[in-house]
Amino acid sequence: MGKEKGKSLSAFAVCALSNEKLNRPVVSDYRGQLFNKDAFLEFLLNKEYLKNDKLSHLTSLKDVVELKIKLDQNTLKCELTSAEYDITSATVPKFVYLVPCGCVMSKKALLSLLSSTKVGEYTKARCPICNTEYCSRDVIEIDPDEEELFALERRMKTLETEGLHHSLKARKKRKSVSGEKSAKRSKNKSSKP
Ligand SMILES: [Zn+2]
């Protein structure tokens, strides 16, 4: 549980792939890690995911979402509240982003908008910044704590069973080597009890 304070600061300051200063365009994976897009593209190009178990979930651009993040030098702005935070100080609150649109905002500000309605795991809502529809499941904490990460891992497992990437784009279906014989099976009769 107890994650040291200050950990979240580096999440906004440093690209988790290259350790260079985080600069837009920024992309993020399902675990809420932030990467410089150019570092991520290089990572894909060099197939680095084959060399690092912790990054083996990153094999395609569909495994990340490009963030609409208001990050300018050391200042992070929440577009929802217009509050600005110095990422080198200890005052940065928890931020989240939405999939698929990638809008970034403080978690508290987002939750305050939702508090009047009952939120289930699959509640649909509209992004308060760009109006794109999203599902409450697809709110991703940036630099999550243990509990949040657990929920994010669970979300990813569900997406995999649904044939989706983190970005909600469809996974490529594996080509069937033995042709399409399974497609022409006789129709199931509906079994009524
Ligand atoms: Zn949005």
Description:
With 193 residues, the protein is α+β, with helices and mostly antiparallel strands. It has one domain (9-170). It has helices at 7-13, 37-45, 107-114, 146-161; strands at 26-28, 34-36, 65-67, 70-72, 75-77, 84-86, 95-98, 104-106, 124-126, 133-135, 139-141. The longest helix has 16 residues, at 146-161. The termini are far apart. The model is unreliable at 1-8 and 179-193 (pLDDT under 50). Bound molecules: zinc ion. Zinc ion is lined by residues 98, 101, 103, 127, 129-130, 132.
Task: List descriptors.
disordered C terminus; 193 residues; binds zinc ion; disordered N terminus; 18% strand; Rtf2; 3-stranded antiparallel sheet; 4 helices; single chain; alpha+beta; Replication termination factor 2
Q: What's the number of structural domains?
A: 1
Helix content: 10-25%
Q: Identify low-pLDDT runs.
A: 1-8, 179-193
Sequence of secondary-structure elements: HEEHEEEEEEHEEEH
**Overall outline:** globular
Region (Disordered): 162-193
Organism: Ogataea haglerorum
GO biological process, one term: DNA replication termination
GO cellular component, one term: nucleus
Give the SSE map.
Elements: H1 7-13, E1 26-28, E2 34-36, H2 37-45, E3 65-67, E4 70-72, E5 75-77, E6 84-86, E7 95-98, E8 104-106, H3 107-114, E9 124-126, E10 133-135, E11 139-141, H4 146-161
Antiparallel strand pairs: 1-2, 1-3, 4-5, 5-6, 7-8, 7-11, 9-10
